[in-house]
Design brief:
Number of strands: 11
Largest sheet: 9 strands, mixed
Helix content: 40-55%
Number of helices: 17
Strand content: 5-15%
Strand order of the largest sheet: 3-2-1-4-5-7-6-8-11
Oligomer: single chain
Shape: globular
Radius of gyration: 28 Å
């Protein structure tokens, strides 16, 4: 999809927002995009089935049927269910709503359509946010928003509709996160961080779990990664949990719009106190939990089976998240977690002892220090933890320092480019001894044989980590980047620098004399 089209869509939608808070407005816009997706994929599947029913060479061929028989056959839900397409009743289809867009009661019609779709599709029960009749948008703006969403075209197949609307949904999620600033981070993790987590974890088949899934970006990127590496949608099964009810709905819609099957639990709930997947053991875990959360503790968590490496401090959930994820990993599983940098070095309230126990148990695999300014919502420096119960390279931890590898995409926002992400992923794969397709000319870390690179990556034995008090900050271990050698002799270089400094000092003295003379002429002597 054309990037300019997405930008134009966003600019128009943002203009229609008027004075409404972005946090409220996003549910209106994203809900309409989802409604159009449901309707478009249904229409595309219906047209596809109709063509096949009348094709004598197709297995669906319905013989010499009349128009009424064909119409009745097109209403057979099995055709839609087998293609993972939601059934949309006549009164809830997008064209019906579009024809009603100019009516003052369009909000009520949208709510009724959502209720109809929920009643026909148990998978969507409780997910669709019916708030349009009571919206605070100025008169006529909701109808204009319906007209705007109508301009998002769809292809000839359900997959084409899903891809186009999925791109718009994902783009709008990111733009709303930016518009909301600090609050945006509660439902959205910047794409380059998600890509890095997924590339290093290398999910391919099995169960993928995110215990604080926000709007579901980790799952969407996992599916993209699998498809780009020759797999297919459905090779992994998705399990998630989210405590915020509106964000939980965003995630469900984000996954449904991609045609991804999912289990987000029976309801939105606190992961620690009301675990929706207590018996789950996942192949891959990806998560960006809230940083340094202080009000997470509940008395019922005392002595919990998850606290294998020590009781987490009641005033900071970082070590609780790490242990929760280890608890839910299969013996052969891998986990990747975004946490604040303090998690790598803090010794407050048992955090140091828990970290030491995890290192000594050899479940910490890779530590990556991230650049600043990657997040919309915080300038707190962050890092990536990668955990594994059965490491490929036992007795060592790989440290990668990526703090200087960001590319600024705006005055306040940075990102990791795909080339940087590939370099990090290839480094980890080489360290694990896994096969690579990378170009060996890019960097020695990209070859199948892993090499330490000063200032970037180093494999460190557990004994050395223990000598440093089990602090896991990459900068402590990778050393300084090797300085470029221009082959100029030190004495010659020093002579040139000294001469240049002498020239600059002489120039400075001249300027001082001029300034003194000017001030003296004005009667200011010093």
């Amino acid at each position: 999809m054309n990037a300019d089209f997405k930008k134009t869509l966003w600019a128009t939608a943002d203009k229609l927002r008027a004075n409404m808070d972005a946090a409220e407005y996003k549910h209106l816009v994203l809900g309409l995009i989802f409604l159009k997706y449901v309707s478009d994929t249904f229409a595309a599947r219906r047209a596809e089935v109709a063509a096949r029913l009348t094709d004598p060479n197709d297995g669906y061929y319905y013989g010499e049927s009349g128009p009424e028989d064909l119409a009745a056959e097109l209403d057979d839900r099995d055709y839609y269910r087998e293609a993972n397409v939601f059934w949309v009743p006549q009164g809830a289809r997008w064209e019906t709503l579009r024809n009603l867009a100019k009516r003052p009661d369009i909000g009520k019609h949208i709510d009724d359509s959502l209720a109809l779709i929920e009643s026909e599709n148990p998978k969507l029960k409780g997910i669709l946010d019916k708030r349009y009749a009571r919206t605070q948008l100025p008169d006529g703006k909701l109808g204009e928003l319906v007209d705007l969403v109508s301009t998002i075209g769809f292809g000839d197949t359900p997959d084409a509709a899903s891809d186009m609307l999925g791109q718009v949904y994902e783009y709008f999620l990111g733009m709303f996160a930016n518009a909301e600033g600090k609050r945006g981070g509660q439902f959205y993790t910047p794409a380059s961080i998600v890509k890095t987590l997924v590339a290093v974890l290398d999910p391919h088949t099995g169960k993928v779990y995110d215990p604080c899934c926000g709007s579901g970006g980790m799952f969407v990127q996992s599916e993209k990664f699998i498809e780009s590496h020759g797999g297919k949608k459905g090779d992994v099964s998705i399990y998630g949990q989210e405590s915020n009810p509106t964000t939980w709905r965003l995630a469900a819609m984000n996954l449904a719009i991609r045609g991804i099957d999912f289990n987000l639990g029976r309801e939105p709930a606190d992961t620690f106190v009301r675990n929706q997947h207590p018996d789950l053991r996942a192949d891959f875990i990806l998560a960006n939990p809230p940083f340094n959360i202080s009000d997470w503790w509940h008395p019922s968590l005392e002595g919990d089976a998850r606290w294998v490496y020590g009781d987490p401090p009641h005033g900071n959930a970082n070590t609780a998240w790490l242990q929760h994820m280890l608890h839910h990993l299969k013996p052969t599983g891998r986990a990747g977690i975004v946490l604040a940098n303090g998690s790598m070095s803090s010794s407050q309230n048992n955090e140091g002892q828990i970290r030491a126990a995890m290192v000594d148990a050899d479940v910490v695999e890779v530590m990556i220090a991230l650049p600043g300014q990657l997040f919309f919502n915080t300038q707190i420096p962050a890092c990536l933890w990668f955990l594994a119960k059965s490491k490929k390279r036992k007795g060592e931890v790989l440290f990668i320092d990526a703090r200087k590898l960001a590319t600024m995409i705006s005055r306040v926002q940075g990102e990791l480019t795909d080339q940087v992400i590939d370099r990090i992923a290839a480094t980890v794969a080489a360290w694990r001894g896994e096969a690579l397709d990378a170009d060996p000319k890019i960097n020695s870390c990209l070859r199948n044989e892993y090499l330490d690179i000063p200032g970037f990556c180093r494999s460190v034995p557990l004994a050395e980590i223990a000598q440093h008090g089990h602090v896991l900050t990459p900068g402590r271990y990778v050393g300084a980047e090797a300085a470029e050698d221009d082959d100029e002799a030190f004495a010659d270089k020093m002579q040139k620098l000294t001469e240049k400094l002498g020239e600059q000092m002489a120039k400075g003295a001249e300027l001082d004399a001029v300034i003194r003379a000017k001030l003296g002429g004005l009667g200011y002597e010093f």
